[in-house]
Write a structure and sequence with these properties.
Elements lengths: L10 H42 L5 E9 L2 H9 L1 H7 L1 E9 L2 E9 L4 E5 L12 E7 L5 H9 L7 E7 L4 E8 L11 E8 L1 H7 L3 H7 L3 H12 L5 E11 L1 H13 L3 E4 L2 E3 L3 E6 L7 E20 L2 E14 L1
């Protein structure tokens, strides 16, 4: 101890303190030399692992919805809708799993599959389906596991075939209880076209396997010759009304697809999705907001007493009452 009477500090104590500080600094320096390479190694190992195991790529592809027969007929026959606003065509699919027909409203990024109650068995006005595309077909099992890990429900893989199973056209991942073919009112699914279909469209093996194909890439190939001259650009936002049980399943599905949740019932990725939760929901679609390539004057197109389209500037909205 120092001199209690004001003498010089104890030199032994000062020496010991100096030695302690030197040892502490040496230990810190040694730990830094050991840990720094370790942290660098862990960082690049994690980075390489992520590069080797990237998340499966999916993106919004299309949206199907069922409107009343009057609205369906008007949308299909209205001159402005058919020849200026949308590129649309009526088509049907005859699969081993079922048959359906609809009005296909196509843009350059996505499309709508519009049904009437007569389009397929079990179709009910107000039913919806949110479709996404898997960019690389060989990653289907990885995506299935990724989705399945988030829920106790069964996420199945279903092939839609014709010729008694001879030809596979598309493959879908979904919770089958929600399927439109099973009477589901709100379905979420991820699809991809069978590689044989993509080869016939002109894509190479490398494109399918490495680059990946989304709906925009498909349409770029399909529109290459005939061009695209409609006002409709792309879907921007969906406003849905789901039951609590449907909401839980959709929330899990959106999470598996990489959507960011920005609030209760609000999600964003390529498009925005706003979900209202209602115990006794009837119509699952409230409205669709979409963008236009060119500005138009403010107008309203009445499709039926319960469905209309409003346009203003470069914005459009389809509303279902």
């Amino acid at each position: 101890m120092g001199d209690r009477n004001g003498g010089e500090p104890d030199t032994v104590l000062m020496y010991c303190l100096s030695v302690f500080i030197d040892l502490l600094l040496a230990k810190i320096y040694l730990m830094k030399k050991i840990l720094t390479p370790l942290f660098v190694l862990l960082f690049f190992s994690a980075k390489n692992l992520k590069a080797q195991n990237p998340l499966t790529e999916t993106s919004f592809s299309h949206f199907y919805f069922v409107i009343d027969s009057v609205a369906y007929h008007t949308l299909k026959t209205d001159v402005f809708c058919k020849h200026s606003l949308f590129y649309s065509s009526e088509g049907s699919s005859k699969m081993d799993q079922g048959t359906w027909s609809g009005n296909y409203v196509q843009g350059e990024f996505d499309y709508w599959e519009v049904f009437s109650p007569k389009s397929l068995d079990n179709a009910v006005t107000g039913g919806i389906g949110l479709g996404h595309m898997l960019h690389r077909p060989y990653e289907v099992h990885k995506l299935q596991q990724q989705w399945q890990s988030l829920t106790k429900d069964s996420i199945g893989k279903y092939g839609f075939t014709n010729s008694n199973g001879k030809d596979t056209i598309i493959v879908e991942l979904m919770n089958y209880r929600d399927s439109m073919l099973n009477g589901g009112m709100a379905c979420f699914f991820v699809m991809y076209y069978h590689p044989a279909i993509l080869y016939r469209t002109g894509f190479t093996k490398e494109h399918i396997r490495d680059t990946g194909i989304d709906q925009k890439t498909l349409y770029k190939k399909w529109y290459a010759k005939k061009g695209y001259d409609r006002l409709y650009k792309k879907t921007e936002k969906l406003y849905l009304i789901l039951t609590p049980q449907e909401y839980e399943r959709h929330q899990i599905a959106l999470q598996a697809m990489g959507y960011k949740k920005t609030g209760k019932g609000k999600f964003i990725k390529e498009i925005e999705i706003d979900i209202e939760i209602k115990e006794n929901a009837t119509n699952r679609l409230k409205k669709i907001e979409f963008s236009l390539y060119k500005p138009v004057e403010k107008s309203k197109i009445i499709l039926s007493p319960d469905v209309y389209i409003s346009l203003s500037g470069t914005n459009g909205t389809l509303v279902m009452k």
